[in-house]
What we know:
By secondary structure, the chain is α+β, with helices and mostly antiparallel strands. The chain contains 38 helices and nine strands. The strands form two sheets. Strands 5-1-2-9-8 form a five-stranded mixed sheet. A four-stranded antiparallel sheet has the order 3-4-7-6, with no helix packed on it. A hairpin with a 2-residue loop joins strand 3 and strand 4 (63-67). Helix 18 (389-404) packs parallel to helix 20.
Amino acid sequence: MTHMYKISSIAISFFVFMTAVSFAASVPKIYLRAWDHSVYLRIVIEGSEQIISKVIIKQENENINVEFSGSKFDLQKGKFPISYKVHEERIVFETGRSGPIKSFSLKNPSRMVIDIYNAEAEGKVKESKSKPKNQPAKTAVKEKKPEPAKKLQATVKAEVMKSADIKTLQISIEADKDDSFIIDQYKDVWEMLQRGNFYQVIKALEIMKPVDQVSLAVHHYIQAEAQKIAGKPLEAITHYRLAYIYGSDKELKQRALIKRASLYLKHDLIQEAAADFIFFIREFPDSQFMESAELGIAESLAVDGYYVDSIKHYANAGDSTAAMFGKANALQQLGQIRDARIAYASALRIDPKYPERDPETYFYIGENMRLAGELKQARMHLSAMYFGRYRDMSFISLGHISMKESLVDDAIRSFNNATKSRFRKVRIEGHYQLAKAYLVKDDKENAIKHYEIIMINYIDSFLHRDVLLQLASLYRKNGNFAKSVGVIKELLYGDNPSAAVFSELETTLLESGAANSSIAGAVAKTSDIKVKDGEEVLEKRASFVQLWNEVDIWMIDVQRIEFLIKIADMLRYEGQPFIALSQWLVENTTGESRAIAALKLAEYYIAMGDIENSNVYMQYAKGTLASQNVVHRVEAKTNQLAGRYSEALGDIMLVQGLDKTDLEILRDIIRGLINSESDQVSKGIDFYESVISASAWEAEEYSRLADVLYENSLQEKALKYYRVAFKKKPDDNWIAYRLGLGSKPDESKVMYEKLQKGNELLNRLAKSKLMEMSLLNKVDEVY
């Protein structure tokens, strides 16, 4: 029974698992694409007919709700230029546009296309066309052919601004003179279409019945031609496709395929166009339309940013002006300024008015002037653009020109105009360049503001990583190390963080540590710093340790030894983080690096009074020439803690170039010698005096030597060093008090009077001494 229960449980579990797998497999997948144009934003949703057929589209202000009528879906994520939110059975696109929308579906594969129009852009076009009197006057052009080595000239006319801001393929396909594929059944309808009577043709085709596959292909071809003339490109595309499928005549198939591809490109269905053009080149290598197909694939690749590949296809597209200017534009966008200039010059010889009809070419000619250093000509040229995508892009270019001319305020105005663009990519570039311009003015607050706009609102931007790095640097420079590390961590969690990211993190950690370590030792001793300041520094130290703990997994690497040794120094007073890092260095490095880390641990354990562990790490360090000074210091401290003061004195005297920390050890050793009544005391004092006399020191070092002399009953020598210390630091109460104790009455009185104000211990002692001196004076007067 038990076995039966187990088998049943397994069977049920397996059934549930398989049901879940089956259900997961049945959930349809959908893919998203989008393109941002001058007058509309296009969103394409691709998936199975099962889910596309159920799409319901609703517009709510600037949001587009796409519901799938109770159908769940699996969204295949990828790069997408529009913000959106995914719910269980719908997607909400945050388009930033509230204009009218148009939607339609396509098949093979099944797609839903949504166009969101911008009413403002359409209004500007109409206004420009309806008020020709307000257009700028045409600029006269000299009848001189441009040369590659000379400045490019382009006529600045208002007609440039009239044309729609959509790049369209200018394929030169011969009119259907060769209509041999039109069979007798459709001759009359075909002739009617040639006369422009597309409406009658569509009506006639509705009642005409194809009798076989050949007539079916011709029927769809003529229907496609009529629908195209009627302004219904999607219907035309459908019929061109059917004409190709049913057609057997090679001429008809070629024309149907390339015309369908051309319509795709004209209406910015780029992937569809590219696929058809590539298929055409493969299927019809000897076609009379080969150059048109090459031009089509070149334009498709250029729109998607594949400029190198597009140039190869432009070269195969013949000598048409569209091909020549397209190649020049691609070269310009690749940054090949000289080659682009030569290409523009050649194309302008053939058609000097082409830029007036094509805003893209007009803009990139201006960019060519700018990048070639012809700033005045470029400014005049680009300032002539009045609306559309390339007008907004010209704001960026004009801003660069102003920056080059050191007109930073003008540049800020231009970049600010770009941030108001309808086009997302231009807005992002505007904020980015605006931040850089503010940095030139040393206005970090505004620079951070515009970088943060990109960081928060455009997380999928191509500039996002660079913006995060810039923000990390600015946060660091403002002393906000935690915020800087927070931004850097976002970069580290991404794909393949760059060397610059690790470099910025190193700098942030080092500056954070340096900001605290200078007084961390004083805080650890709790004697040389006020309580309030000490609490603040302890808080900063805790913050630094927290930063290190957050990122150490990325930074502990054998290629960063020098950096890690510095960090170990900064963690010296932090207990476990210091021990862990130093032990890693000892275990994973060799030579001097290993010795340095071992000595740091030895020093740490000495300070903790742990001689056993100190000796263990001393063994790692001995024999390394570069670290012998540290070895002597640690051995001096070890012997001093063990009460071997004579040996400790011998060790500290071997240190080359003693510093004030060494003098502290020396002072402690001499005090130990005094207490142990050793005959080495005078040797230690003489050595101390020789070190002090050899160079200039701070007041504290002279005072410490004076203390040692005073404790050894050498008051006269002590007074000598107290006076030197007093000159260097006259506001030091301890030095003043010691001078008062050992000096003659007049000097003592001056010192005590200086000290009597206040309520600290030394102040009260000074008051007592003054009272004592006053009483003794009165006794002397009486007696």
